[in-house]
Specification:
Strand order of the largest sheet of chain B: 3-8-1-11-12-2-13
Helix content of chain A: 25-40%
Largest sheet of chain A: 6 strands, antiparallel
Strand content of chain B: 5-15%
Number of strands of chain B: 13
Order of helices and strands of chain B: HHHEHEHHEEEEHHHEHEEEHHEEEH
Number of helices of chain A: 23
Number of domains of chain B: 2
Oligomer: heterodimer
Strand content of chain A: 15-25%
Chain lengths: 686, 462
């Protein structure tokens, strides 16, 4: 429910101009300490000191160190412009509470990592783990036929398979350990089959729930090379009485060589195996290695001395080695260099480390990995071929799957539809299962048009939808069997395209009824990138309830927005909303509103529209849609709204995007664009 | 230690005044004035005036149906009628009313809500300048989705559901700090940890945030200080390298580090007065999950507020009994109503009006429970907390069906160190809620004569 937005969107009156934004004052390119200046013909722009948002804090700790505490979930929430992205540097202020939360969480994170690593060390007899293989993949890294991530887990919401890829160094005996849980329904627990390299290996019941997940182990003799671990959910069901869907969640998959090793890949190791002994030199090694990774940049000798100073003072105070090292490790996380991306300031905005961080937080929502670090260290990211190969590698990595939610889900406001609250009293039949169905529908639709080999512009009007049994029955769509079905819609169907999927129709509604201006604003701001603001001093009266004289929303809004002061915006907002009025707030098709026939006709962009499908045709023909897709991808990448000065960069990206509109290619092009690589933009003609 | 801290802060480009203040023992500062407290309580979805507004002014008014629960606490509470939110009759329905609720402004930009303004005045003396609570987080409190254990408690799995689900400045926030909405917490255990630190080990005699001076606590405080000092050194290293536009972020970070230092100062300080008797400050009774019974849940949050005040962990609290546009369901006379969709928009249907009045009576009963709790609990000098507290209880809209902002439903509880004289029904005509805030803020020692945009003069006769 978005009442704040609704109130502003209920009635807009302005001249409808597209608002541009001036540049924001940031640190000059190159940074005071950076030796590198901007490239010729490159004008400084706005990489402000960006801080990690909560999700990025957790991903940074998880991806880099295998942390499972995920402390930032409990931090105070980030605030950001709901029309933008949650990574916008200018919005991510740092409240005292946030720093306090981080300081309070640091011991929990460090203690957990330390305990994990020392357990490994003990298990491997105190020596190194040469020959032992251990790799853990989070459920969220699955390549799956159905489902989506939920936190670090993969949610198989209907029967299907989640696959995980490992690379085994040698043939031998291995243990596969799977942590999973179910959203249980009925007396039968969730069921999962384990497949290894395409062959059924073992069946498992998964009786656990989120608080107490089930851990199952399977031992197998496996060949060297690629190992595919497939987990198949086989008993999806839906309980009509409790309205609970049975779902399977894969938390993580671990493959361990029988020779020992442990649950953690050496790359994630923090404490053990860095060095042995309890002397100052070992402490320094552990601290330098941890700070390098947590701060995403080389650590200066001064900084190293500072960290060692924490260790020394703690030892001098009578604490033992472990306490002292752990305290200094905490200091690494509480230093601003973890929460704030300082690498561009400390090393220069074009330093390999700054580039690597920009790439990884864009593509992965997390920090660089060892491979990217190596490219940053040796400076080879400056080589276009190397950069290109790195971008390809990163996009192929499971971590890039998160772009669906982080980039497109935010842009189209489709994340978290499950929790969107429509008034169940007013919309009979709406329930958790239908809302979950709506989430699956839009996620599948986005996956098809933005993340597979499709023309992204086809997303606007494709005669395609997806529905599981609950949603199909709710919307009156044909349904055959279980799972999410892909449906091709006939030409006579009133429903098609992005705006015909349930999520966009619901998220633009009030909890009680449709809001045509809100839907108009969605189309203008999300698909055409036009921003409208309520003029200062204008008061917005509430939309009156339906009456005998004014039964439909259109009747009421036309009367209310008739004054010239309103028409600046509403002349463009209303026709869009009216064209979608055949879809109620719950996204069901309807032909009447409070007993009166709905009239979806109007004019948009100078062209006549008559309902959703003609509106989508007009939109698809509008070149602003293509431009808007470029702007959204770019704005997310550079963590700020696009500005007038970005026009040249946008034009260059658009030229490439215009052939075929492959969204993944656009993402790759954005990643390699000068704005990302140089942290500055090509100078426009003087 | 204080000398060293002061010196570091001077080099950290923080003003001189806080440095001087830091030299004062915190207990001495706490003693210099009475410890006054504030609660801003948010009533959801307006009211039905016919069932809310007493028919006569002054003391001795008859309690209308929705206010029936005030009977045992009426000497501690005043009813104020005819207060407006602002100059226009409609402040933008729920969204606008909610923004205005404690800011007395129609925009968030640059504003600070009353709880934060009061929190800033008391922050040097408490662990938490403000605590913001909510009974409902964006539809979170929706019983069919919640499974209780045998004691009626919902244990959020793995911390997953302790997270605040408020998004996009939805109708779930009332506290605002310099234009930034402040999130609520709703999980009792999170609230407990905010107030008292992590739960104490058996026999250790206090949580991590206590002012206990055990050797172990002092040693850990010294360790944490090393962490903060390193972070400050890194921040200052950064400051030397950045342009003015980016200084703000580093300054914000330093402000956060300073907040940690204040907490550590509190641990290190030697108390100049004996610690309060254990009976008056209960940090040790832990809390766990969320009671599935709504009434029990609502009252548990009241209990936590009382404990927080009694232990002087905070002096400024907001508590939302539901979000704006709350879809919380209530069953009245066998019929289940969605609070906003069915009951508040009653369309003059008699059964729905009755349902709304019943829901309001329940909301007021939670307020009455909190007032009772504050009247029963005492400061170490024996003064009941209610005598040093102000409770402002109101909503985002006035009439539940029309969503206007005139004649707001307002209850004012407590005596606030003698600044308030409760027990009557007052006429607030020609005043805004913002005017009331000016009066409250002045009682906290402020010299301000305005508050937000609509608080233009203090309101007398309270």
């Amino acid at each position: 429910m978005r009442a704040t937005l609704l109130c502003c969107a209920a009635l807009l009156a302005c001249d409808g101009k597209i608002l541009g934004q001036g540049p924001v004052g940031g640190t000059p390119v190159g940074g005071a300490g950076g030796g590198e200046g901007p490239a010729a013909g490159c004008e400084p722009t706005t990489f402000q000191l960006t801080r990690l948002n909560r999700a990025e804090v957790d991903e940074s700790l998880a991806q880099r160190f295998g942390d499972t505490v995920r402390p930032a979930r409990l931090f105070s929430a980030d605030t950001f412009d709901p029309h933008g992205f949650d990574n916008a540097a200018a919005d991510l202020s740092i409240s005292p509470r946030l720093v306090q939360d981080l300081e309070a969480a640091a011991p929990r994170v460090i203690d957990a990592l330390w305990a994990r690593d020392t357990a490994v060390l003990a298990a491997s007899g105190g020596g190194s783990s040469a020959g032992g293989y251990a790799q853990t993949l989070p459920g969220s890294s699955a390549q799956a036929t159905v489902g989506a991530t939920r936190g670090s887990a993969w949610n198989l919401w209907s029967n299907g398979e989640a696959k995980f890829s490992f690379s085994l160094p040698s043939a031998g005996a291995y243990t596969v350990t799977i942590t999973a849980y179910g959203e249980q329904v009925g007396s039968e627990p969730a069921h999962m089959d384990l497949w290894l390299n395409g062959a059924m290996a073992a069946p498992f019941d998964v009786p656990g729930v989120v608080a107490t997940p089930t851990r199952v182990m399977h031992q197998a003799s496996l060949p060297a090379g690629a190992l595919s671990v497939g987990l198949r959910f086989t008993n999806d069901t839906f309980d009509q009485t409790t309205m609970i869907d049975r779902n399977l969640f894969i938390v993580e998959v671990k493959v361990e060589g029988a020779g020992g090793g442990g649950p953690v890949s050496s790359a994630m190791n923090v404490a053990a195996r860095v060095c042995s002994g309890t002397d100052r030199a070992c402490a320094e090694q552990i601290l330098a290695r941890f700070a390098r990774r947590a701060w995403r940049r080389p650590v200066s000798s001064e900084e190293r001395a500072g960290l060692l100073g924490v260790f020394d003072a703690t030892v001098a105070d009578g604490d033992d080695f472990e306490t002292a090292v752990k305290l200094a490790l905490r200091a690494v996380l509480v230093a601003p260099d973890f929460l704030i991306r300082t690498e561009a300031v400390m090393g220069g905005v074009r330093s390999g480390h700054a580039v690597a961080s920009r790439l990884s937080y864009f593509l992965w929502g997390g920090p660089p990995d060892d491979a990217l670090d190596a490219r940053a260290d040796d400076g080879s990211l400056a080589d276009a071929t190397v950069l290109s190969a790195e971008v390809e590698r990163m996009l192929a990595d499971p971590r890039a799957q998160s772009l669906r939610q982080r980039l497109v889900g935010q842009w189209l406001e489709t994340n978290g539809i499950e929790a969107f609250a429509l008034d169940p009293g007013l919309f009979p039949g709406i329930d958790t299962a239908v809302m979950q169905g709506a989430q699956k529908q839009i996620d599948a639709y986005i996956g098809e048009y933005f993340f597979s080999d499709h023309d992204a512009l086809d997303a606007i009007d494709a005669p395609v939808t997806f529905a599981d049994a609950s949603l199909a029955s709710f919307l009156g769509l044909p349904s055959s069997g279980s799972g999410l079905m892909r449906l091709t819609l006939e030409a006579s169907s009133p429903r098609a395209g992005l705006l015909g999927q349930s999520a966009p129709l619901m998220v633009t509604s009030k909890s009680t009824e449709t809001s045509p201006p809100r839907r108009g604003q969605y189309v203008l701001s999300r698909l055409l990138c036009q921003k409208m603001e309520l003029p200062v001093g204008l008061t917005v009266p509430p939309v009156p309830p339906a009456s005998a004289n004014q039964p439909t929303a259109r009747d009421r809004l036309e009367a209310l927005t008739a004054p010239a002061a309103c028409q600046g915006c509403h002349a463009r907002l209303n026709p869009v909303g009216f064209a979608l009025e055949n879809f109620a707030a719950d996204s069901r098709f309807r032909t009447s509103d409070h007993g009166a026939t709905i009239d979806p006709k109007g004019t948009f962009g100078g062209k006549p529209v008559d309902g959703l499908r003609t509106l989508e045709q007009v939109l698809k023909a509008d070149p602003l849609v293509e431009r808007c897709m470029v702007e959204k991808a770019l704005s997310f990448a550079i963590a700020r709204p696009v500005e007038v000065g970005d026009a040249a960069a946008i034009a260059a990206l658009r030229t490439r995007f215009s052939s075929g509109h492959r969204f993944l290619q656009l993402i790759a092009d954005v990643a390699k664009s000068p704005l990302m690589v140089d942290g500055c933009r090509p100078t426009s003609s003087p | 230690m204080l000398t060293r801290r002061g010196f570091l802060w001077t080099s950290g480009a923080v003003g001189l005044l806080p440095v001087l203040e830091a030299f004062l023992p915190s207990r001495a500062r706490a003693q210099s004035t009475q410890a006054l407290r504030f609660v801003g309580m948010f009533h959801t979805n307006g009211c039905v005036h016919e069932q809310w507004r007493p028919s006569s002014l002054g003391a001795g008014y008859a309690l209308p149906f929705s206010l029936a629960a005030l009977a045992p606490v009426r000497s501690h509470v005043s009813v104020i009628s005819n207060l407006r939110l602002g100059p226009t009759n409609d402040m933008g329905s729920h969204g606008g009313g909610q923004r205005c609720f404690l800011t007395a402004s129609d925009t968030l930009s640059g504003t600070t809500s009353l709880d934060v303004a009061i929190g800033k005045r008391t922050e040097s003396q408490v662990r938490l300048p403000t605590l913001n609570l909510s009974l409902e987080n964006n539809g979170y409190y929706w019983p069919p989705q919640i499974v209780a254990d045998s004691s009626g408690i919902y244990q959020a799995p793995n911390g997953e559901d302790r997270e605040d689900r408020c998004r996009d400045g939805d109708s779930c926030l009332v506290s605002v700090s310099s234009g930034t909405p402040v999130n609520n917490v709703y999980h009792p255990q999170v609230i407990y940890e905010r107030l008292f630190g992590t739960a104490p080990a058996p026999g250790s005699g206090g949580g991590s945030g206590s002012s206990g001076q055990s050797a172990a606590a002092l040693k850990e405080a010294a360790r944490r200080r090393r962490v903060v000092d390193l972070a400050k050194a890194q921040a200052n290293r950064l400051k030397g390298r950045i342009g003015s536009g980016d200084q703000k972020r580093v300054d914000e970070y330093l402000e956060g580090l300073r907040a940690i230092e204040r907490e550590l100062d509190g641990i290190a300080a030697t108390p100049t007065t004996p610690p309060p008797p254990a009976a008056t400050c209960d940090k040790s009774t832990p809390v766990s999950g969320i009671p599935v019974d709504r009434d029990r849940y609502a009252k548990l949050l009241c209990d936590l507020i009382v404990r927080g005040f009694q232990c002087d962990a905070t002096r400024s609290v907001t508590y939302m009994l539901g979000q704006g546009v709350s879809p919380m369901k209530f069953t009245v006379a066998g019929v289940t109503y969605s609070h906003h969709g069915d009951a508040s928009h009653h369309g003059s249907d008699a059964a729905k009006i009755n349902a709304k009045a019943v829901i309001d009576a329940w909301q007021v009963s939670v307020f009455a429970y909190l007032v009772q709790g504050l009247a029963a609990a005492k400061d170490p000098d024996g003064t009941p907390l209610i005598d040093r507290t102000a409770l402002f209880y109101s909503s985002d809209i006035a009439d539940s069906d029309r969503h206007d902002a005139v004649d707001m439903p307002v209850l004012l509880g407590g005596r606030l160190g003698g600044a308030l004289h409760p027990g009557t029904h007052l006429d607030g005509a020609n005043h805004t809620t913002g005017d009331l805030f000016v009066s409250l803020l002045q009682a906290f020692g402020s010299t301000a004569t305005t508050f937000g945009k609509f608080g233009t003069a203090p309101m007398g006769g309270l």
